[in-house]
């Protein structure tokens, strides 16, 4: 864990970057959250006509605060005890997932196979299919993956993708389709607790959970939870309706306090498996690509906790970030190839 002095330096650098991000968004309202990207190299042409718009000047607007934050991270990482990762569980096969699907938001693509291509980039055998419709066409398209989770709630969904289905009926439809497509092993609910202030209420969770089990009681319910929510909210009422916690670090400085945050997640969800989300695009304090050195550290820590039996795997988000942040994406792919 970090010392008090390291935490103080990190917090100060993160706050300066956070303030700069908010100021730039206020001065440039045309730049929407998540629609930022690294500049495309000269001469390179985007081969996906269904990709949404992105702004490639954003990173320049964050300077010098982003570089100063990066330097602080480097200093802290250099002072932390070195992890011996050779005996850690390796990522791949059953414990590596890629998140994605057709979306017009956040610089994503509306191509049906966007998640397929993203998983191929990271050589992942498992996918979390989100945003798009839960129908025969999309289930068939992703049937070649070893395991698949599918979104069943409306939050962050592509307009029209859920049609007239409620979250409950969407979960029931996924349960029915799982009988035909056995690689469907569960459902994912995105941002399910973000609109609760202190107490996460159980009614919607219970309805989705029971609908998911209607035709196939072996399916598991996964739900997105953010580190910064753990100290703010009471999740106890939804424990019976959530099988696995999908934990995400919204602010990249939280990654350096990994041990404390995993412990807090265990306290809030006693006995629940945890699967670690890996953001290639950092939304919290920069709205830009996650620093490669932090991604490497997060993957090291995830593998440490997988070896200890506390974390069961990682989910990389995701397909759209490969083109948006090629340096961050390549850092993760190279890590996976050389772990």
In short:
The chain is 37% helix and 14% strand.
Spatial strand order of the main sheet? 1-2-3-4-5-6-7-10
* CATH classification class of the largest domain: Alpha Beta
Within CATH, the superfamily of the largest domain carries the name: Glycosidases
Rounded to the nearest angstrom, the radius of gyration is: 19 Å
Count of distinct strands: 10
N-to-C SSE series? HHHEHEHEHEHEHEHEEEHEHH
The total domain count is 2
What this model shows, in words?
- The chain has 339 residues and is of the alpha/beta class.
- It has 2 domains: 1-32 and 56-82; 87-338, Alpha-Beta Barrel (TIM Barrel), CATH 3.20.20.80.
- The chain contains 12 helices and 10 strands.
- It has an 8-stranded parallel barrel with strand order 1-2-3-4-5-6-7-10.
- The longest helix is centred in the first third of the chain and has 24 residues, at 4-27.
- The mean pLDDT is 96.
Write the layout of secondary structure elements.
Blueprint: H1 4-27, H2 58-61, H3 65-79, E1 96-100, H4 114-122, E2 126-129, H5 136-141, E3 147-151, H6 167-177, E4 184-189, H7 203-212, E5 220-226, H8 227-230, E6 244-248, H9 258-268, E7 274-279, E8 281-282, E9 288-289, H10 292-307, E10 311-317, H11 321-324, H12 326-338
Parallel strand pairs: 1-2, 1-10, 2-3, 3-4, 4-5, 5-6, 6-7, 7-10
Antiparallel strand pairs: 8-9
């Amino acid at each position: 864990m970090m010392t008090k002095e390291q935490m103080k330096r990190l917090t100060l650098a993160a706050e300066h970057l956070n303030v700069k991000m908010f100021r730039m968004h206020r001065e440039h309202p045309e730049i929407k959250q998540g629609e930022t990207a690294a500049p495309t190299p000269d001469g390179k042409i985007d081969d996906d006509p269904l990709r949404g718009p992105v702004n490639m000047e954003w990173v320049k607007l964050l300077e010098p605060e982003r570089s100063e934050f990066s330097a602080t991270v480097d200093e802290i990482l250099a002072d932390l005890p070195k992890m011996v990762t050779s005996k850690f569980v390796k990522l791949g096969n059953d414990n590596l997932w890629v998140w994605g699907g057709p979306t017009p938001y956040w610089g994503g693509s509306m191509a049906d196979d966007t998640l397929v291509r993203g998983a191929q980039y990271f050589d992942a055998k498992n996918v979390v299919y989100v945003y798009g419709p839960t129908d025969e066409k999309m289930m068939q398209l992703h049937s070649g993956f070893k395991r698949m989770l599918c979104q069943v709630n409306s939050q962050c969904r592509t307009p029209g993708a859920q049609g007239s289905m409620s979250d409950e009926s969407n979960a029931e439809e996924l349960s029915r389709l799982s009988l035909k497509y056995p690689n469907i092993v569960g459902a994912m609910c995105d941002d399910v607790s973000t609109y609760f202030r202190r107490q996460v209420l159980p009614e919607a969770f219970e309805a989705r959970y029971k609908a998911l089990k209607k035709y196939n009681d072996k399916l598991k319910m996964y739900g997105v939870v953010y580190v910064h929510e753990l100290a703010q909210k009471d999740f106890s009422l939804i424990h019976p309706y959530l099988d696995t916690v999908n934990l995400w670090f919204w602010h990249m400085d939280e990654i350096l306090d990994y041990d404390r945050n995993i412990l807090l997640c265990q306290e809030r969800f006693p006995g629940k498996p945890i699967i670690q989300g890996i953001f290639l695009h950092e939304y919290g304090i920069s709205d830009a690509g996650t620093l490669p050195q932090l991604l490497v550290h997060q993957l090291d820590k995830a593998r440490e906790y997988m070896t200890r039996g506390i974390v069961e795997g990682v989910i990389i988000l995701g397909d759209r970030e490969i083109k948006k942040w090629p340096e961050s994406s390549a850092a993760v792919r190279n890590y996976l190839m050389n772990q």
